[in-house]
């Protein structure tokens, strides 16, 4: 049986070795299922009693409470909260986090989370499990979500090495592949492969939707096929998430948007000038580059 | 048994009712398989003897020849050729097309095809079966490709109504859904939902690939997931096809590119200004609009 991070201090642990998960949505719920399957005891914390009941029915945690005080004694606490709540955490939650526990998060932007939380908790370590589906909420969690997926850990100069090791053990317990990077590097990479695609895909959708000729607009809707569906999938996703990504990772997202706009302008110029050999080269290069990105083989 | 278009003149048909298919790649080969399954006799024409042998082995047509003269007696001929060959057809092929046969094509851009071919053959009717995979060549054809997919017919003022009916019967024989539209309307709709996605997706790929910070570039490649893979799939496709679409549908593609660039610029401005409520509205609208496009439900 794999054990979570041992708490360093010999405190009064009601349940030593227990992992706390705050939020039992897609990430928190999936993590609860996998950790329990690996033999870990999981203390879930959710906001409403209705969610707690459903989380218990689904078996997302060993115990589920609405009072953060139930985290007492947890050696490791995962804040599986949306970015906005993570960046404006309830004072009662912060106060309830055991000081000796390792605390981590699952947010998709890391620099602002690290900047805030390294001052809020002495053993905070920032993380980002890169797994997900379009689903959210207490019904979304599912087993095996993290298997063979990257779990990025972004330590800062002040991050406790023991806390990093504890998070590595947690990630490995659910089959994830640990990758360590600087928070700023993570955020710039995430802007390119995760946040930019959302905004570009949405731009494409809106361009197609805003066709002013009614006949063309209707036919376009009728003829759309898998290519259009694939290219616009992430742009038609959760607008809260898309806005949060742009808001919390603004500098990197803006740089990525600019670079993409320049590429689009260059292609527009080639089409306008009839630069077909150059357009062919650009499209060839796009195809060659694509295979170097994970999951695009 | 469903019969193809009867030839109107009582010509010397070696094999009346036979359908000719010129080119046995993805579209031609798939059509040959489905038409034979529906009981039609199919005369395939390919360029090389090696391809002919392989097409015979795969059973893509009832007969396969390299000499277009074998089309003699076909009541309906489908030109399943790439757009560039369709727009610069070999003189021997044009000369070999029976004058009394209905002749159609499968090109993804319709106005230039109609403009050329309505002068090359008296019974030409322009069509576009909207089905496909990334595969090409004699190995690509597969059964059922057209089932429940749109087959757009774009008649001109001079198109023979009997030829339209013949093409409708062919499309219905393979389970496609016939949609009639003006060639220009088709081309503008195709620019929005098919050609623009290729160029936007390629721009996104090149923006991500051209990251100058080596650490960010490497991490982006390592962290790319299904969202990036989906959004860049069509942009990493066949560069010949992407270039041909832009070249043959330049005006509509350019208008679509401009509209998409304006959307991207507007989103960039919102991110720069911190216009989060407006960005949220734009992303919400993208999600709502998406469900009105076929295949995006």
What does this structure look like?
- Two copies of one chain form a homodimer.
- Chain A is α/β, with parallel strands linked by helices.
- In chain A, the strands form two sheets. In chain A, strands 3-2-1-4-5-6 form a six-stranded parallel beta sheet, sandwiched between helices. A three-stranded mixed beta sheet of chain A has the order 7-8-9, covered by helices on one side.
- Chain A is elongated.
- The first copy, chain A, has twelve helices and nine strands.
- In chain A, strand 2, helix 2 and strand 3 (63-65) form a beta-alpha-beta unit.
Helix content of chain A: 40-55%
Mean pLDDT of chain A: 93
Low-pLDDT stretches of chain A: 5-16
CA-atom Rg of chain A in angstroms: 22 Å
Largest interface: A-B, 97 and 97 residues
Class inferred from helices and paired strands of chain A = alpha/beta
Shape of chain A: elongated
Oligomeric form? homodimer
How many helical elements of chain A? 12
The number of distinct β-strands of chain A equals 9
How many strands, which pairing sense, and closed or not: the largest β-sheet of chain A? 6 strands, parallel
Query: Could you give the distance between the termini of chain A?
Result: 36 Å
What string, H for helix and E for strand, traces the elements of chain A in order? EHEHEEHHEHEEEHEHHHHHH
Strand order of the largest sheet of chain A: 3-2-1-4-5-6
Strand content of chain A: 5-15%
């Amino acid at each position: 049986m794999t054990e979570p991070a041992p708490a360093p201090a010999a405190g009064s642990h009601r349940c030593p070795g227990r992992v706390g998960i705050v939020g039992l949505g897609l990430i928190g719920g999936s993590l609860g299922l996998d950790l329990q399957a690996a033999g870990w005891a999981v203390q879930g914390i959710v906001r409403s009693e209705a969610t707690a009941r459903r989380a218990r029915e689904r078996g997302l945690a060993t115990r589920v409470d609405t009072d953060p005080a139930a985290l007492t004694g947890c050696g490791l606490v995962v804040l599986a909260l949306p970015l906005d709540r993570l960046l404006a955490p309830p004072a009662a939650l912060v106060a309830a986090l055991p000081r000796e526990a390792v605390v981590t998060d699952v947010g998709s932007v890391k620099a602002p989370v690290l900047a805030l939380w390294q001052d809020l908790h002495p053993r905070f370590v920032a993380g980002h499990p890169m797994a997900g589906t379009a689903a959210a909420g207490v019904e979304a969690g599912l087993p095996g979500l993290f298997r063979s997926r990257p779990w990025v850990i972004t330590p800062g100069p002040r991050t406790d090495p023991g806390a990093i090791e504890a998070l590595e053990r947690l990630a490995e317990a659910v089959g994830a592949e640990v990758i360590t990077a600087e928070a700023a590097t993570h955020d710039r990479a995430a802007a390119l492969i995760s946040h930019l695609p959302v905004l570009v895909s949405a731009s494409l959708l809106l361009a197609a939707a805003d066709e002013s000729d009614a006949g063309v607009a209707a036919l376009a809707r009728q003829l759309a096929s898998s290519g259009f569906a694939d290219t616009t999938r992430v742009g038609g996703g959760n607008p809260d998430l898309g806005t949060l990504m742009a808001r919390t990772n603004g500098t990197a997202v803006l740089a990525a948007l600019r670079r993409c706009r320049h590429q689009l302008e260059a292609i527009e110029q080639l089409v306008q000038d009839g630069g077909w050999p150059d357009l062919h080269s650009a499209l060839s290069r796009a195809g060659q580059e694509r295979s170097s990105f994970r999951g695009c083989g």
